[in-house]
Automatic annotation (TrEMBL):
Residues annotated as domain PDZ: 85-165
Superkingdom per UniProt: Bacteria
GO terms (BP aspect): proteolysis; signal transduction
Alphabetized SMART domains for the sequence: PDZ, TSPc
GO CC annotation: outer membrane-bounded periplasmic space
Swiss-Prot/TrEMBL keywords: Coiled coil, Hydrolase, Protease, Serine protease
InterPro entries (UniProt xref): ClpP/crotonase-like_dom_sf (IPR029045), PDZ (IPR001478), PDZ_6 (IPR041489), PDZ_sf (IPR036034), Peptidase_S41A (IPR004447), Tail-specific_protease (IPR005151)
Organism of derivation: Chitinophaga niabensis
Protein known as: C-terminal processing peptidase-3. Serine peptidase. MEROPS family S41A
One Pfam short name: Peptidase_S41
Coiled-coil stretches: 474-510
UniProt-recorded Gene Ontology molecular function terms: endopeptidase activity; serine-type peptidase activity
Protein family (similarity comment): Belongs to the peptidase S41A family.
Amino acid sequence: MRRIYKKLVLFSLLGLCLVFAAFRTSDKYFLIAKNLDIFAAFYRELNTYYVEDLPPEKLMHKGIEAMLEETDPFTDFVPEEELDELRFMATGKYGGVGTSIYTEGEWTSITDVYEGSPMAKAGVKAGDIIVSLNGKSAKNMEQDDISLMLKGNPGTSLDIVLRHPLTGVEKAYKIIRDDINVKPVSYSGVIRNDIGYIKMSQFTENSGLQVQQAFEKLKQSQPQLKGLILDLRGNPGGLLEEAVTLSNIFIDKNQLIVSTKGKVKSWDREYKTSQSAVDAQVPLVVLTSRTSASAAEIVAGAVQDLDRGVVVGQRSYGKGLVQTTRPLPYNAKLKVTTARYYTPSGRCIQAIDYSHKTEDGEAVYVADSLRRSFVTAGGRPVKDGGGIEPDAKVESMVLSQVAITLLRKQFIFDYATRYYYAHPQVKPASQFSLTDAEFNDFEKFLDGKDYSYKTRSEEALEGFRTTAEREKYYDGLSKEFDALQQKMKHDKKQDMLKNKTEIRQLLEEEIMNRYYPQLGRIEKGLSWDKDVDEAVSLLHAPAKYQALLQKKN
């Protein structure tokens, strides 16, 4: 009898737990329904009785934006009119004329013309100035507005008037928009005689296949390839499946590349390689930077965790979140974070904790003390919570303030335009270099032009002054401050000389981009790239390369 009583008590408690759980779930849905009713009633009353007319779409979008502030920046509402951006992220295609632009002052210039695009076929050149679009003056027009007018459905026409940057002659064009396909493999070739190099800019549809085709072509052109550099620097990521496909080029069949885990458990998934590798033996270096993110980090993480190659460069961005697109009424979309992804060792490399924010509403980075340790297939230690740490770290290049100013004010761009029209032919990008006389010509070109700037030291000193004034210390320090400020005054001519090598390199890259669009800038940059130098050094020293793969601190 006592056993029966105990069982009855146990079943009663179990029943109560189920009831409470049901209540908790129903309470959640009740609160959702309740607050939706309140929201709808609030809007109805506000719209009916507020003294001024309120634009409904603008008001609702404000409400959506407020909700999104509680999420991460990757979760977003995409209205129908912005679906082209979503399409571009997935496919690398958009409807337009195939050009990049930059606005400086009153006018907007063409900065790049994509190979094979409608603009290229029409003979438009980098440096040309946009005068009007469809009969509307482009003077003082916002860059975003011009960009919007350049884009459009394939087959539609654009009437554009361009001004020659040197002669000032204006010419009218009728451009028929087309599908513009931004190639995910922006450059591939053999460098330093025996090292393959592939630069990948994004993970869009079929990008993995394009990397494979580029790699196979490199092997055909150089059968004695001593290694491959896969450059993912600045790559913001894209499609997760393409990261798996790319990894499969170098990692053999049935190897785990990435797994995803989220709130909807039925969506949790493991992604493994499905084919035999194209080449599972070629020594491999993956280059990463602070702006390598998402799918780029999946590839770098898999290569590192499976000890398939080494990572060189700087710590990656740290985006370990997966987004899914959900349909909404009226062709709108919700791009929502649904899961975290994990590399083969089991680590999530998400660097920012969006669930915890400061009093100012800023999300916080995962503290180093909270980062957990994992091990690669060969037993090397790796950590979560902070992007992919390179196996061989190279300090990132920081441009001088004078170089940044010359770039921002378009003086390097403008001189490259002038150089292009003065020199009909030049050497190939890998062999081209500016002479001292040509660099002196650039300096003369700058005479009378305003490229004033503040050095970082000057900015820091001004910050110190502001703090000292606020804390009422400045009066007692003013003489010392003025003396230090006088000593720090920079001479632009001296800064030019001090940073001559850096400025010369930027000039050479921009000039080569005029003769060999997109490819020239990359190829020229390879000749002085520190990350590439380190990668080549490792691939030319097999013992050093292997030592990194076996390092266990």
